[in-house]
User: Which sequence fits this backbone?
């Protein structure tokens, strides 16, 4: 298993590095690696646009994949992710309300309100699914989709009444075309939160074994549960504030990693982050070249790719006990 984990991590890292270079080379403006040696304006293009965009994609993919993995462990269900439990929709609602009521608030304050709304949305969802019987695991994502749709409808209604639909569309449709130097740095905090999850990975794994096991092993269950939920809420809100919501990352990537490497979080978390970053980077490159010089938002491309991968996961024979 350790050999397989090492191979998967090395393969994902190699793919990520290759895609990173390709991402820097692709774009509407002409860019040449050779001209960098001449100290031309190519450096400005690289430092102001290409590098910030590529870093933003890597941080978004890695952190959302880790958030999805944590959520699946906490709720003991492999068919959910932040956008399927109302977290993404709640973050957009909190951001919209904050923008309407306090338009002069700082970005950090708006992000904090979005994180609080995402956390509240997840808690409401957890209260809802407590009424479901333990055997109705497939009902959980169905309830989540309905719950998220209700929040999204309410948000759209508020945006329609206040003529802010265009603004809402930016938060609902993930897109990296507007990322420049100075407009993505909050995502480094999302990356740091994903890294923090690695340090409590063993406790999260024990928590996923159930309440009885975790209590018997002396785990402070409430503290780890709140820490996990807070990490998911903050990552979700940071991504929504900066580039908008991107579905399926937190659903598909953790399932691929779990099927190949099992449920031991400390072992699988690096692969989850690397796979998430590589897949989002690949989808963004596809979105940029498929109708060049126009762009298709990465959320649209990943929606198609994620659906295909998810169906493949459902139909494929389970290679590892989940």
Assistant:
């Amino acid at each position: 298993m350790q050999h397989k984990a090492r191979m998967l991590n090395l393969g994902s890292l190699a793919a990520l590095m290759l895609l990173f270079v390709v991402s820097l080379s692709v774009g509407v403006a002409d860019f040449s690696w050779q001209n960098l040696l001449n100290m031309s304006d190519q450096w400005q293009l690289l430092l102001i646009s290409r590098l910030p965009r590529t870093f933003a994609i890597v941080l978004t993919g890695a952190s959302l994949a880790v958030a999805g993995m944590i959520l699946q462990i906490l709720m003991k269900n492999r068919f959910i992710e932040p956008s399927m439990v109302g977290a993404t929709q709640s973050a957009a609602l909190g951001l919209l309300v904050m923008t309407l009521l306090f338009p002069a608030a700082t970005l950090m304050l708006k992000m904090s309100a979005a994180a609080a709304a995402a956390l509240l949305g997840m808690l409401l969802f957890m209260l809802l699914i407590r009424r479901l019987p333990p055997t109705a695991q497939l009902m959980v994502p169905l309830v989540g989709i309905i719950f998220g749709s209700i929040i999204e409808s309410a948000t759209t209604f508020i945006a329609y009444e206040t003529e802010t639909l265009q603004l809402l569309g930016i938060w609902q449709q993930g897109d990296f075309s507007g990322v420049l130097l100075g407009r993505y740095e909050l995502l480094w905090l999302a990356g740091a939160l994903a890294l923090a999850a690695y340090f409590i990975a063993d406790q999260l794994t024990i928590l996923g074994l159930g309440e009885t096991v975790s209590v018997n092993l002396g785990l402070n269950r409430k503290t780890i549960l709140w820490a996990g939920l807070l990490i998911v809420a903050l990552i979700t809100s940071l991504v929504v504030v900066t580039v908008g919501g991107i579905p399926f990352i937190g659903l598909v990537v953790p399932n691929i990693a779990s099927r190949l490497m099992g449920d031991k979080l400390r072992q699988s978390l690096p692969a989850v982050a690397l796979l998430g970053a590589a897949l989002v980077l690949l989808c963004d490159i596809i979105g940029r070249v498929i109708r060049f010089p126009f762009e298709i938002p990465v959320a649209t491309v990943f929606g198609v790719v994620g659906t295909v991968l998810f169906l493949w996961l459902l139909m494929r024979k389970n290679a590892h006990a989940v």
